[in-house]
Amino acid sequence: MEYFIQQLINGLTLGSIYGLVAIGYTMVYGIIGMINFAHGDIFMLGGFAALIVFLLATSFFAGIPVALLLLLMLLVGMLMTGLWNWTIERIAYRPLRGSFRLAPLITAIGMSIFLSNFIQVTQGPRNKPIPPLVTDTYHFGAITVSLKQILIVVITSILLFAFWYIVNKTPLGRAQRATEQDRKMAALLGVDVDKTISITFIMGAALAAVAGAMYLMYYGVASFNDGFIPGVKAFTAAVLGGIGSLPGAVLGGLLIGLIESLWSAYFSIAYKDVATFAILAFVLIFKPTGILGRPEVEKV
Amino acid sequence: MATVSETVPNNVMAKAIKEGIFAGVIAFLMFSLFVGIETYQDINNQLVWRTRWGLLAVFVAVAAVGRFMTVAFIKPHLDRRKLAKAKAGILEISEEKSFFHRHFLKFALVFLLIYPFLSLLIVGKQGSLKYVDNFGIQILIYVMLAWGLNIVVGLAGLLDLGYVAFYAVGAYSYALLSSYFGFSFWLLLPMSGILAALWGVILGFPVLRLRGDYLAIVTLAFGEIIRLVLINWTDVTKGTFGISGIAKASFFGIWSFDTGSPNNFVKAWGLSASSVYYKIFLFYIILALCMLTAYVTIRLRRMPIGRAWEALREDEIACRSLGINTVTTKLTAFATGAMFGGFAGSFFATRQGFVSPESFVFLESAVILAIVVLGGMGSLTGIAIAAVIMVGGTEILREMSFLKIIFGPDFTPELYRMLLFGLAMIIVMLFKPRGFVGSREPTAFLKERKAISGSFTKEGHG
Amino acid sequence: MATDMTTMTKDTILRVEHLSMRFGGLMAIDDFSFEAKRGEITALIGPNGAGKTTVFNCITGFYKPTMGMLTLHRSNGREFLLERLRDFEINKVAGVARTFQNIRLFSGLTVLENLLVAQHNVLMKASGYTILGLLGLPTYKNAAKAAIEKAEYWLDKADLTDRADDPAGDLSYGAQRRLEIARAMCTGPELLCLDEPAAGLNPKESLTLNALLRGIRDEGTSLLLIEHDMSVVMEISDHVVVLEYGQKISDGTPDHVKNDPRVIAAYLGVEDDEVEEIEEKLDKGIIEEGSV
């Protein structure tokens, strides 16, 4: 039982990270109907931004409080990836909006290849380890909860709440939902569609950056090809939850995290990704709209 | 400056300067951390950093000047040209074709047939290895894969992001069956294709009900599952170590290319020992396989099944209303595409003599799909051109060692291969969203065959 | 089921019995029955939202009805329960073809290719499910030739011969409608279902369409059509069924229906709040005053 709970906690932590990245996928898909393949690499970029901020901060201000350092890593990472995603949308995606469906997908795949190779070229192909930031652990009987796990879950929860508030309670969120429903009509009713889409990309990137920073903190290492597998898993999470649905993305993320940690614990660690992908295929085949997705009605 | 403002109106100039500065600022912020700071491990394996202000300045300058030039000169120039064209009333597609253009395919085929000998003649045996193998065979493998995927994506409009799985099935079928049972290449080549097609049906059957992006993501998942199984099923596949020492293809069972063999091709013909003959032989095999793929694709397009594929891409609901079984139609497309992937896979295994899961990552699927879309979905010529440019272009980069003189001895051009590949994908899509050849050749005609503009063709929903 | 068959007259092609269709809580079609006779043009009319297209989608296999039986009698004596067939079998096996309210052509294929795709099943068989055709056997070549001839026949009928080699997406709206009908006819149906064939056509195009539809009927194909344009309905139909709120309110010859008080009430309305709706429709020219 303790072992099970332990795995549950580990899965929840990992799932929070996936959930944050999944929101970016789901939002972009919801608003412009495009699989933003480069989103996983934005997540990786966020991790690298946090890594570099960590190095700079610790060498300029030795003995900087950990909380401040963490805040700095998150904030700079969010700004940095927000700026990147804004530029990417502006340069590479916007001109293709409304064109041939595969063109944006190919551009996004191209962007993903570009981003990971850009980091490989500028920062080198080796794994980048950092010393552990937060080391405290708490013991409850046989169960160990580390402070970083608590941090990850808490930060994720705060962000999700803030995010939920923005989407549901602010004019910006209303503009986003309107654009998602019907872009042309939204534009006719005075919504600045371009701006709304840009902001969506920035918001998605900011969440991915937080996820990237926390991934770095959790595993203590960053690599240029960190974007792909977590990216695909986060996308899987978004699809599992029902693409286009924000609560679905979070739920999907948590499920993927749980499946992964429980499968590794009870079956085989080697096949954990196989399990994730197999479940994805299974869910899609039997419930193609995901858990919380709206059913797609085939219009005749 | 004074001379410039004569041709460029002042407001444009002001706008250009403003936008140039803006681009510079954005670039500075974007690249400040990733380019301005370099992280590396010191001798104690500690992660440390140093600055690269010079490089950062170059990035910022390129962005600022590039933006300035675009707004001030390139865009007005393009607008003027478009306007002039519109005034003159010239259509974008001109009907007149040059002699070369009309006979392009014949020229290309003749060139390919004599290509190995041409390279022998020009650069000799040792030099030819590179040209026949790295360029010729490498590009042709991608041409074949892209043509195979074209059946699925270009004709039937089914977005498959896991095509590499079938390539892997073909390669491992050959590798395993030849190492365990000693079957020959000529037996295993068709067998790999059939096995891959079988896998196409097995994987296709449950997923083909799905539409569009869902199909894409499930095929991606299947591609990854196959790769992960290859990695983890170490008893059979030897995991990440891969399978080495895979048998070479023989000259149709008559001569062998194994150096120790008594009926060695080189000895039998009294040639001096060189691996170039084997490479040339392989070149012709893959060329023949490509031709087979093209022939089958062209024939199938004119058959009811091929037309049904294209109709499926255009409108699935209408297909059903016309009595077309969309499930079997999709399955045949999937299986046919998979079969060619399997052929290419077994060829790949015999050419490399080694297979490992490394070769079948998602990136490969992405590259193949990119070639199909960049070439223009459905167009065999366009796809071949895209393969030459994208694969050949990145291969050329390996050869550019002279760049070391410019960028210093640490410069390794290979490192930039995929960076440029990704960039090229983005740029081509931005300028030619429908690929190099956007028009479609009709499969039947009453009076005259007219190419159909890409603006009419759809790209499928599932 | 068997008892019904014996009472059925021979010239019925489609018999719809107790058809009901429920979408969630909404009963779109409620216990609807009618018959379409062979060799006739049967029109299904009714105000907006009456459920006409739903009936159509049930007949052509796009919806599975909640309840009811849809029997199709082929001229060779075979009978099919449409609700039990798979979507593509409705056309392939039962010989029911349809068109769509918002035209669904293969816009990137040429007009001729559209007509060839429609002959898929015949050609598939002739090509030995592709394998024999790939080998270039004469059976397929002959079949392909025959297919083109059939396409030419319908191109001529639909007045599209000049545009045969142009992409379908390039045609004018009226021509696209005719092409869609020609394409459906190329499948060799016994029953052709048309979903608002005259929608969006100008009067001249409307006349050509009427001639085309009559020609199709005279060649022996039965027609079932949904239509808003009363002039088309009254002019060409042999039999009219009126649907309102998912229920049949009238059934008979055009003259009978025209004078049926329930139909007049349905279109002109009897209650105050409905009068406005009718006036709106009159303004849009959906209903012609003289026709009701």
Describe it.
The complex is a heterotrimer of chains A (300), B (462) and C (292). By secondary structure, chain A is mainly alpha-helical. Chain A has one domain (2-225). Chain A contains 11 helices and 4 strands; from the N terminus they run H-H-H-H-E-E-E-H-H-H-H-E-H-H-H. In chain A, a hairpin with a 2-residue loop joins strand 2 and strand 3 (143-146). Chain B is built from 18 helices and 4 strands. In chain B, strands 1-2 form a two-stranded antiparallel ribbon. In chain B, helix 2 (10-34) packs antiparallel against helix 3 (53-88). The longest helix of chain B has 52 residues, at 104-155. The model of chain B is unreliable at 1-6 (pLDDT under 50). In chain C, a hairpin with a 2-residue loop joins strand 1 and strand 2. In chain C, helix 4 (111-117) packs parallel to helix 8 (173-186) and helix 7 packs across helix 8 (173-186). The B-C interface holds B 296, 299-300, 303-305, 307-308, 310-311, 313-315, 317-326, 332, 440, 442-450, 452-453, 456-458 and C 60-62, 87-92, 97-98, 100, 104-110, 112-113, 116-121, 123-124, 127, 129-130, 133-134, 140, 148, 152, 155, 161, 164-170, 183-184, 187. Chain A: It is found in: Cell membrane. Chain A: Pfam families: BPD_transp_2. Chain A: It comes from Rhizobium soli.
